[in-house]
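Forum > Structural Biology > Help requests

Title: Can anyone predict the 3D structure of PTS system glucose subfamily transporter subunit IIA?

Hi all, first post here. I have the sequence for PTS system glucose subfamily transporter subunit IIA but no way to get a structure on my laptop. I'd be grateful if someone could post the structure tokens.
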Amino acid sequence: MFKNLFKKAKLQVYSPANGELIPIENVPDPVFSEKMMGEGIAVIPTEGTIHAPVNGTIIQVAPTKHAVGILAEDGTEILIHIGLETVSLKGEGFNVCVQTGDKITVGQILVEVDLEYIRTHAKSIVTPIVITNSNEGTKKYTVSEEKEGIAGKTVIMTAEAK
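Reply #1:
Sure, ran it for you. Structure tokens for PTS system glucose subfamily transporter subunit IIA below:
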């Protein structure tokens, strides 16, 4: 009867985009591949919409529109960094659909992206999804073995209290 009462809550992080999932270690940028910003995974998007990977609150939208910070309901901080070296695009190719303080739900569109523009003008369309507070050591992160992500449907990572 009490077995489930003390069960550890597990946060499920869903793919923010349709596309190929790759280990964070394979991202061609040492800031991400060496986990300087935290644990994570990446997606190579096949469509130009970035969706909410969790229920939570938008805590940051980069002025250059290439990155969104999310605070999940369990306190996990998630950064979605759209493409590599996209800060130099100064917002061109991005249409942000949310703003700081917005409550979001899994699957909600956060950013519309012109993938062709990004492919042509930035280093890569690889999109890292990083747990920026993973170094606190209070949670265990498990990255999915999935190879393809469907936005808002495929679980790409879980976080649970240690």
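The helical segments are 30-33, 115-121. Confidence is low (pLDDT under 50) at residues 1-5.
Shout if anything looks off.
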